[in-house]
Each structure stands twice: as structure tokens, then as C-alpha cells.
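Sequence in, structure out. Go.
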Amino acid sequence: MASADAQLPITSPAPDRAADSRSELDRLERAVRELIAVQRTLRAENGRLRASLEESRREQQARTAVVRGLEERLGAERQLRHDALKRVDELISMLEQLDPQVAAAPGRGR
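Output:
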């Protein structure tokens, strides 16, 4: 049996393995380059989104400040209206008190 084994040609799988290894290495290198490109793209998009978010926050703060200012102004205007109505009521009350006095005043009956 040893003689039959000696007659078999000895082939080295090394060239095929080397080619397969090189092909696999090339594939991995391409995958890594693609991942790096995707990561750069995502990093840039992340930066744009963060800047947009910050701008939105600043705009929201500005709107909030405007609303607060308008609410304060509205409160002041309401107070002025209340004070004016109170003063009008006081004047009407004074006129109502004066009306009988004017009607009873001498010389009014001419």
C-alpha cells in the first residue's frame, strides 16, 4: 500500500490558499474603506443635525421670550383697563350723588 501512496502526485494547496487569502484580505479592506466612508458621512450628518437642533433651540428661546414679553404687556394692559373701569365707576357714582344736589339747588327751578 505504501507503493500506491507513493505514486500519487503531491499537490500543494498553498497557491489556492494564498489567492483565497489575498481575495479575502482585499474584500475586508474594501469593507473597511466603505465603513470608514459611511462613518464620515454619518459624522458630517450628525454635525449638521446638531447645528440644526441648536438653531431650533435658539429660535424657541427667542419665541419664548417674545411670548413672556407679550404676557407681561397683556397683564399691564389688563391692569390699566381695570383701573380705568374702576375710575369710570367712581365718576358715575359721583355724578349720581351730584344729580340730586344739582336738581335741588336754588335757581334751578326757573
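Check: Residues 14-104 form the longest helix (91 residues). The helical segments are 2-7, 14-104.
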